Amino acid sequence: MTAGVPTEFIPPGPQNFETPPIIHGVDWFTKPVLVSALSVVVIIWFFWGASRKAAIVPSKLQFAGELGYNFVRNSIARDAIGSADYMRFVPYLTGLFFFILLNNIAATIPLIQFPTFSHIGWAYVAAIMSWVIYNAVGIRKKGLWGYFKHQTMPAGVPVWLMPLMIPIEFISNILVRPISLSLRLFANMFAGHILLLVFVLGGEYMVFESGSIAIGGVGIITFLMALAIAGLELFVQAIQAYIFVVLTAQYIGSAIADEH
Amino acid sequence: MLTLVLPLTEAADEAPSPLLPHTAEIIFGFVFLVLLAIAFAKVVVPKFEKAYADRTAAIEGGMNEAKAAQAEAKAALEKYNAQLAEARQEAAKIREDAREQGAQIIAEMREQANAEAERIVTHARAQIDAERTQAVASLRGEVGTMATTLAGRIVGESLEDEARQRRTVERFLAELEESESARQAVGTDG
Question: For this UniProt entry, which segments traverse the membrane (chain A) (predicted)?
Answer without folding.
Answer: 33-50, 89-113, 119-137, 157-175, 181-201, 213-232
